[in-house]
Design a protein that fits this description.
Number of domains: 1
Radius of gyration: 9 Å
Number of helices: 2
Distance between the termini: 20 Å
Largest sheet: none
Oligomer: single chain
């Protein structure tokens, strides 16, 4: 899933990854 998003679009991956990191840190 993560890899798919990465290969699909760099911008989308960056936004998604940032959100995932923030979620991991706060939750």
């Amino acid at each position: 899933m993560l890899f798919s998003a990465f290969f699909f679009s760099e911008n989308s991956c960056t936004f998604f990854f940032c959100s995932w990191i923030c979620a991991k840190l706060f939750f």
